[in-house]
Amino acid sequence: MSTFLELCQDVARESEVVSGVAPTTVTGQTGDLLKIVARTREAWRDIQISQNRVVAENGGWRFLRKAFPTTAVLIVNTVRYMPTSLNITDHGEWIDGARITIWDPDIGVSDQGPLTFIDWPSFMQLYLEGTQTASKPVNWSVSDDGELCVGPMPDKAYPIRGLYRRAAQVLTADDDEPLCPEDYHQVIVWKSIMKLVQADEAPRTVLEDATRNYLDLMSALEASQLGRITVRSRPLA
Hints:
The chain is an alpha+beta fold and 237 residues long. The protein is built from six helices and nine strands, in the order H-H-H-E-E-E-E-E-H-E-E-E-E-H-H. The protein has a six-stranded mixed β-sheet with strand order 2-7-6-5-4-8, covered by helices on one side. It is elongated.
């Protein structure tokens, strides 16, 4: 696995920003080495959020999808849940239409079954108007405030399971490792170099190779982690 420090060292070597010098740590840097660390961190964030628009379509990056913790349990008479209410600490976004299941704790997992996703206006009309009676939830939705909502309001502490999208990982320590599969870690290097060139912090002669390598690896990453192949244009030689 490539660590944050190793990626920064690759960027320093391939970008030609510095000669014969590579960062020995990602902290406490100044000048060009600080720029390399910053651009590498930014590049990884850019790659992660590049697929936010398709979260509702297919869940976005597979490496950012994560299962609810086993401690996620609904609260009696409670419709709305922020991520921390379900013991989720790295939440980025709920996945509209994802499969979410619950079961009666008095019966056990043999009772496990899915909740049906409905849009927020329909949910409000069904479960937030008039007198409501607590019972086993059958629907779920996402509020305008980003809460996961279940209806009817639960009459028991039902365990709940599903998938959500993690918040973008921020690389901070030398030994931090990107969440994506190791085969695609170098896509961060090439994206970082592209950012360095755009900021006039690297020779423009390296842009073509960096762009070509980035597009090749990004397409491979998308095919692997989105389940679809994206055709991208490349600069002419």
